[in-house]
Predict the 3D structure of the following.
Amino acid sequence: MGAEEVAAVNDEDQLRVQAALEALGEHFDSVMIFVTLHTSTEDGTEAYAKGIGNWYARYGQVVEWVNREEAVSRKEVLGDGGAED
């Protein structure tokens, strides 16, 4: 099982994410969790991502989700399914 981290959050929050990964990993082939946390720093939001299972499956699922969400957004903005003439 591989794992990736995008940015660090505190140890307690990392343990929460790890526990959720392990619980879900018992039932699914791969799991990817993304979390954000508002901070008082200048950046304002801290992001953390970690996953277990097949990296390619997780990557493919994220790409598919992003593409689908972008298509929905284009349809909502353009009102024609995303095609602009």
About this structure: Helices lie at 11-25, 55-78.
